[in-house]
Amino acid sequence: MSALCESKTRDETGGQDASDTEESASLTKSEVLPEASKDMESKGSKGTQSRKHKLSPDRERASKIAKQDVDADVSSASTSVPSDLTTSGSNERKSDTSDVKTVTDNTVLVADHYNALEEKGLSQRNKSRIVYMRNFNNWIKSMLINEYIVKVKQGKSYGASLRVLDMCCGKGGDLLKWKKANISHLICADIAQVSLEQCQQRYNDMVNGKASNRGYAPIYTAEFITADCTKVRLREKFKDPSMQLDFVNCQFAFHYSFESLPQAECMLRNASESLRPGGYFIGTIPDAYDLVSRWQKCDGNKFGNDVFSIEFLCEDKTEAPLFGAKYNFHLDGVVDCPEFLVYLPTLRKLALKHGLEMVMFERFDAFYERYKNEGRSLLGNMQALETYPPYHETPLLGDPERDYQHAVQYMQNLPANHRKIGTLSQSEWEVTSLYAVFAFQKMKTIWNSEGKPEYVKS
Ligand SMILES: C[S@@+](CC[C@H](N)C(=O)[O-])C[C@H]1O[C@@H](n2cnc3c(N)ncnc32)[C@H](O)[C@@H]1O
């Protein structure tokens, strides 16, 4: 993918924290990103089995098969709403690869991993090998949140309240985005108590004016819930359980719920139950098609580069279960835990069952293409791209020989006086290009004669 837009480099902002610098000034440059993965069409498997992913790259066929599988899975799933799905007895359905014990183990692993992650200061974060990729991901989140906040606001009168649930909020990297969006109330939920405490501290610092205020409206009110969003009914934990929200956010985390059908259902139900009709549920997840395509192409079950690795723990490269299709994801000092494939037709179908209609699913490269002009100055302000060739005092973070060939080629076609461009190293792009953004809209609920909810477009 090639792209022209504007950016600013790290040295131009004095190394500020990108997540806190969305409103600083920007300079103009050209940018280029490495080619997007076009390799999702590999040849492969034959035959299907009930309740398995068809991992053939033939997407349409695969999606038809998965649709039948999902129909069976979803229709046999429970519609009752226990508060805690770990003890849901008859509601519990075993997925192909996970029983109740492994389900528990994995969520504990994930919580322990995030709890143990050190809160790195600004200077440490800026030294990270993947600082530009993290900033780029942050830019994607900002643009996505902005796109749907604008839609939500369109249906509201000026000054009306705007309430948000951030599921799996982490240490609160998005707190400033909510401030910019001028929301009135935020509910933060995460399984990792230490992360949530850091999130609350950051929020308190914002309220007390320690963090940059930069002229925004008074800060929203907030509440913090330590909970496993895949097992606990969040609405019961809200300070006001009758509250209707406009927006649910779940960034880089929804895939943890695809460990089992009950967990995926619980997460979707949490999103759905929180939203008013017309509200939006948005987020970012790895694209299962791309993950599987790369897995099928590698020798063995492990692939990656110097900044990330993924090791699949499923037996068969051509078939994986709809739930519990597990891989270990390691990312340079940031993530090191089990994750699960989220098969798009399954997600779409399951969400619909909970009154959430998918309105957008877009790979990061396509989303970037769509927003690179509108998000030009923010891309620069957030230092989301690395300068190539580098300034003398700022060496490239990637391998100069291997990681910037796309930039070298791109520059060959630029006018001679065009000396610098912004880019991501090949290694970073290989990670971030795995991801996709999604958005669902909450449908209107009507109650049928049996007292069960049915959903219609709002
Ligand atoms: C990659 S971090 C993303 C954090 C934040 N959303 C962001 O974009 O900066 C994933 C987060 O999901 C949380 N998480 C994972 N599984 C969870 C679960 N079952 N329930 C609640 N939070 C969970 C982790 O504790 C971690 O904070």
UniProtKB/TrEMBL annotation:
<dbReference type="GO" id="GO:0003723">
    <property type="term" value="F:RNA binding"/>
</dbReference>
<keyword id="KW-0539">Nucleus</keyword>
<feature type="site" description="mRNA cap binding">
    <location>
        <position position="171"/>
    </location>
</feature>
<feature type="site" description="mRNA cap binding">
    <location>
        <position position="339"/>
    </location>
</feature>
<feature type="site" description="mRNA cap binding">
    <location>
        <position position="177"/>
    </location>
</feature>
<feature type="binding site">
    <location>
        <position position="141"/>
    </location>
    <ligand>
        <name>S-adenosyl-L-methionine</name>
    </ligand>
</feature>
<feature type="domain" description="MRNA cap 0 methyltransferase">
    <location>
        <begin position="128"/>
        <end position="443"/>
    </location>
</feature>
<feature type="binding site">
    <location>
        <position position="228"/>
    </location>
    <ligand>
        <name>S-adenosyl-L-methionine</name>
    </ligand>
</feature>
<dbReference type="GO" id="GO:0005634">
    <property type="term" value="C:nucleus"/>
</dbReference>
<keyword id="KW-0506">mRNA capping</keyword>
<keyword id="KW-0489">Methyltransferase</keyword>
<dbReference type="InterPro" id="IPR029063">
    <property type="entry name" value="SAM-dependent_MTases_sf"/>
</dbReference>
<keyword id="KW-0949">S-adenosyl-L-methionine</keyword>
<feature type="site" description="mRNA cap binding">
    <location>
        <position position="202"/>
    </location>
</feature>
<comment type="similarity">
    <text>Belongs to the class I-like SAM-binding methyltransferase superfamily. mRNA cap 0 methyltransferase family.</text>
</comment>
<feature type="site" description="mRNA cap binding">
    <location>
        <position position="435"/>
    </location>
</feature>
<protein>
    <recommendedName>
        <fullName>mRNA cap guanine-N(7) methyltransferase</fullName>
        <ecNumber>2.1.1.56</ecNumber>
    </recommendedName>
</protein>
<dbReference type="InterPro" id="IPR016899">
    <property type="entry name" value="mRNA_G-N7_MeTrfase_euk"/>
</dbReference>
<keyword id="KW-0808">Transferase</keyword>
<dbReference type="InterPro" id="IPR039753">
    <property type="entry name" value="RG7MT1"/>
</dbReference>
<keyword id="KW-0694">RNA-binding</keyword>
<feature type="binding site">
    <location>
        <position position="256"/>
    </location>
    <ligand>
        <name>S-adenosyl-L-methionine</name>
    </ligand>
</feature>
<dbReference type="InterPro" id="IPR004971">
    <property type="entry name" value="mRNA_G-N7_MeTrfase_dom"/>
</dbReference>
<feature type="binding site">
    <location>
        <position position="190"/>
    </location>
    <ligand>
        <name>S-adenosyl-L-methionine</name>
    </ligand>
</feature>
<keyword id="KW-0507">mRNA processing</keyword>
<feature type="compositionally biased region" description="Basic and acidic residues">
    <location>
        <begin position="55"/>
        <end position="70"/>
    </location>
</feature>
<dbReference type="GO" id="GO:0004482">
    <property type="term" value="F:mRNA 5'-cap (guanine-N7-)-methyltransferase activity"/>
</dbReference>
<feature type="site" description="mRNA cap binding">
    <location>
        <position position="255"/>
    </location>
</feature>
<feature type="binding site">
    <location>
        <begin position="137"/>
        <end position="138"/>
    </location>
    <ligand>
        <name>mRNA</name>
    </ligand>
</feature>
<feature type="compositionally biased region" description="Low complexity">
    <location>
        <begin position="73"/>
        <end position="84"/>
    </location>
</feature>
<feature type="region of interest" description="Disordered">
    <location>
        <begin position="1"/>
        <end position="100"/>
    </location>
</feature>
<dbReference type="Pfam" id="PF03291">
    <property type="entry name" value="mRNA_G-N7_MeTrfase"/>
</dbReference>
<feature type="binding site">
    <location>
        <position position="251"/>
    </location>
    <ligand>
        <name>S-adenosyl-L-methionine</name>
    </ligand>
</feature>
<feature type="binding site">
    <location>
        <position position="168"/>
    </location>
    <ligand>
        <name>S-adenosyl-L-methionine</name>
    </ligand>
</feature>
